[in-house]
Write the structure tokens for this entry.
Amino acid sequence: MTLTSRGAIHTAVTTAAIAGIGLLAGCSAGGNTASQPPTQAASGPMTQQQAAARAQQILRDTASGVQPPLRLRVDPDMTMPSECNTQIPRVSVTYAFFLSGLTESQEGTAALKIRAYWKKRGYNVGISGGFTDGQPYIAAETQDHFLIGLDWNTTGGPVFISATSPCAIAESTAPSS
């Protein structure tokens, strides 16, 4: 099996695992199905801007929460809002950062530290592996239903971490303050 086909299979498996966690999140009290309100922020339903800020905070806290702290570089191809499958205008927001400055041999160790940090924070780590073969992956969920993950880059670049919000009020429909 070639690296490319292994990468495609791995990405499909990781995506399916994250989607499975997401289905669980959507069915829980804090999830966001068409009949449920968006996840609550302190002042009411979470807006797109609040979701984006929280996604970034989770990832930056992760990078600074392991020793030595990790350097992040935004992944513009994976940082975006996307429409939720609801009857009312809702979006989920994804942010992704490459872990910069790591050699391939350091990525597995960094991934293990991230998994330990996420467990320490009380995040639900669903699946993880590949720490010793240069293809680390982790799929998890925060208590406030953000889907978070770490994955190796099938194109040979650095590993990346990402956070995807639950459905939030789209900017175009958010109430003005």
